[in-house]
Write a structure and sequence with these properties.
UPF_YfcL, 52% helix, 107 residues, mainly alpha, YfcL family protein, 2 strands
Length: 107
């Protein structure tokens, strides 16, 4: 069963299982390639994966539980890198990140 992450610009299926660890996020991102998602979703997931990987190394390994601190640090890094993206791409990435957080095991 899947549910849909909705935002103004993106729709992406998410497993009905909550995302609890960094490895779960990576598995979700990998699974997008097997689904019929648009290029914006694939772009946003790849962009986010880079930031998550960067931040996660300072918190532990891939099996670590997603924490409020980890999410906050990824959010700060994304805001700091805002100028790397066009305004439209920035909205796509931000909306995808915010929607994805709704599937994290309650922090």
């Amino acid at each position: 069963m899947t549910t849909t992450i909705s935002s103004d610009l993106t729709n992406a299926p998410v497993s009905s299982k909550e995302i609890a660890t960094v490895a779960d996020i990576y598995a979700y991102f990998d699974g997008l390639f097997d689904q019929d998602v648009d290029a914006d979703i694939l772009f946003a997931s790849g962009y986010l994966r880079g930031f998550i990987a960067l931040v996660a190394t300072s918190f532990g390994d891939e099996q670590q539980v997603i924490t409020t601190d980890l999410v906050g640090e990824v959010t700060l890094k994304l805001k700091a890198a805002k100028s790397e993206l066009s305004p439209q791409d920035g909205v796509i990435v931000n909306n995808f990140w915010l929607a994805l957080q709704g599937f994290f095991v309650k922090l």
